[in-house]
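job 3f2a | input accepted
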Amino acid sequence: MAGVLNMAQPPLLRPFSRHRRTVKPPISFSVRASNSDSPESSTATKPPTSSTTFAPPPNFKPPEPKRFGVRPDKFLDVLGASLALIFRLGTGVFVSGYSASFASENEIPPGQYALDIAGVKIKETSKLGPRPAKPIEIYEFESCPFCRKVREIVAVLDLDVIFYPCPRNGPNFRPKVVQMGGKKQFPYMVDPNTGTAMYESDDIIKYLVTKYGDGSVPVLLSLGLFTTLTEGFAMIGRMGKGSSYSPAKLPPKPLEIWAYEGSPFCKLVREVLVELELPHLVLSCARGSPKRQVLYEKAGRFQVPYLEDPNTGVQMFESAEIVEYLRATYAL
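job 3f2a | predicted structure (332 res):
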């Protein structure tokens, strides 16, 4: 072993003064299908009928994954999405307690994931807190700085979360948030493991680190107004993306996406998932996540985003092609 790099999460700089807000208990509901661009005040949409079909586009074939490849026509999109890494100094890239160490080829057994940079192997580990039995549920949308704060802590804590997108004019989940919590405000979190439901990004972050972490909030998520401003600046390169509803068919099952907040490629896919109001389970796998090994064993390599669509059976890499698949399959 040639060297070791330790990047433990810093402790909380100051205590939170806000109290957790008590809201009405969550109301269970099923995913419904919609084929109209209804306003937020619209009534519940009708469930899928036999005429609603979900199938990949004709002659669809998943693309071959390309490591560190950017399609020429998507270069500016990736560049714009990458600005967040600068403004947020990599928050959401590393799991809590991240540690990396150089290793020789002999130290990495066959079938074990390790970061490979120019032939140099790097083993990555982290220190995780208690794991929730059921995924956390979060109602939010992509271009909201308060929502991004919560998505960052989700990546830091390596939590799996079902996101219910709430873009402007979305007919399904915005009205549900009002029904469950009493007001149209985002993000809104429901923890089915404890029955807890709450608004307010700072309260949600404090709850998650207390319940599923070591109790400390990362520095860059604990700086109040500075945190909120830098979260807003992080979205300049993709301003307005992932904020407004595009009419789409609502599938019966949430899509599954292996991703993490710090990846610009994952962000491009998330924007479309939100715009089409497609519920999706994010299997968080930031640097140091043990789920990187899980995906490596499952797909034969680690690369994100990786989409698994239980409604069509499609499994695929490559962000640009995933975006095209989502629009071809679900957009109206």
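job 3f2a | Confidence is low (pLDDT under 50) at residues 1-30, 32-50.
job 3f2a | closed
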